[in-house]
Amino acid sequence: MKLATLKDGSRDGQLIVVSRDLALAHLASGIATRLQQALDDWNFIAPQLEDLSATLNGGKARHAFAFDPRQCMAPLPRSYQWSLAGAAAPAAEARSGDAWLGAHDDAFFFDADAGIDLGAGLAVITGDVPMGATPEQALEGVRLLLLVNAWALREAPALPPPASAAGPVAVTPDELGAAWSGGLLRLPLASHVNERLLGAPDAGQGPDGGFGAVLSRLARTRGLRAGSVVGAGTVGEAGAADATRGFGSLADKRAHAAGSDGGAPRSAWLRFGDRVRIEMKGRDGQSVFGAIEQTVTGPAAAMAAADGAPPSAAAA
Question: Of 29, 60, 64, 83, which is least surrounded by CB within 10 A?
Fold first, then answer.
């Protein structure tokens, strides 16, 4: 099944079930109001959500409505944990999960010279994973997969990482068919900057052992609670994938270019007004998670948004 969170003026939004083709949605309020509620009691609530999903996909849901990803928050707007543990990372990078950006929310930055960069990748949302879980046991704790943009400030490493963005729809592993294998989703993940393709590397070229190994490594020192979000790093990390397919970040593109010709990186970092699009399509050509579409926005818009003004007014 596919789940999303509709904006309703609250911090955590309203849980909805989305059709497989991302055309229709249905409120899940009669079952669970928030995704965290479903994760906390997954064995009881998930089957009810699956029944609603089957009804929706069968065209028999009486109160279905058109799905609009622009009206969605991140599927899990506030997560207890958000960690990145990519193939190139010696240790997991803990990030703040208290304020995820929605797929169509502007990304606000105060310094255009901080090395603003996207970070296209995948993450899993877990149930409870006990301390000491093996990779096989840890993989059983995966409840949902998520498309992410782990924004980064490459020229300001002393600053905390910016808020990350999530694709509009979270997807259960059984929805992915044969593409989900060995704890990896073996499909290309395409990233565009200002409508130009940055890359479409295979997300299946991820960390050895897939998400099972990543989660097991995290669980060596403590258990993971339901609602933890764990990412496998940026797709196409330098040295971790076939560079001919491109990259999921400007940092990896710059590193590859510098290593290839021995010169200085030629790709500039993102600037205010730049647009980023990240999307994964299945073997049937349909979008799996919906797209992340964000605009890099400067200080004036950030301050206005903090005061409650519409971002579009701030940018004018």
Answer: 60
**Average pLDDT of the chain to the nearest whole number:** 90
CATH number at residue 148: 3.90.850.10
Cβ atoms of 75 and 144 closer than 8 Å: yes
Q: Which two tokens stand for residue 174?
A: 């059984």
In 3D space, the residue among 7, 74, 9 whose CA is nearest the CA of residue 36 turns out to be 74
H helix intervals, the chain: 35-40, 42-57, 135-139, 210-218, 250-261, 299-306, 311-315
Which CA distances in Å does 282 have to 15, 71, 175, 258?
24, 23, 11, 33
42 with 106, same domain? no
7 and 140 share one domain: no
Looking at the structure, do residues 11 and 31 belong to the same domain, yes or no?
yes
147 torsion bin: left (phi>0), alpha (psi -120 to 50), beta (else):
beta
193-245 residue pLDDT tens: 999 999 999 998 877 789 999 999 999 999 999 999 999 889 976 554 456 78
Q: Tens digit of pLDDT for each residue in 40-70? A: 999 999 999 999 999 999 999 999 999 999 9
pTM, two decimal places: 0.91
CB contact set of 2 (below 8 Å; sequence gap of 6+): 17, 18, 19, 20, 22, 53, 169, 170, 171, 172, 175
Asked whether the beta carbons of 109 and 296 are under 8 A apart, the reply is: yes
- Where is 121: in which H helix or E strand? strand 120-126
CA atoms within 13 A on the CB side of 219: 27
Compute the residue count for the chain: 316
Residues pairing with 26 in the sheet: 17
Q: Tell whether 102 and 26 lie within a shared domain.
A: no
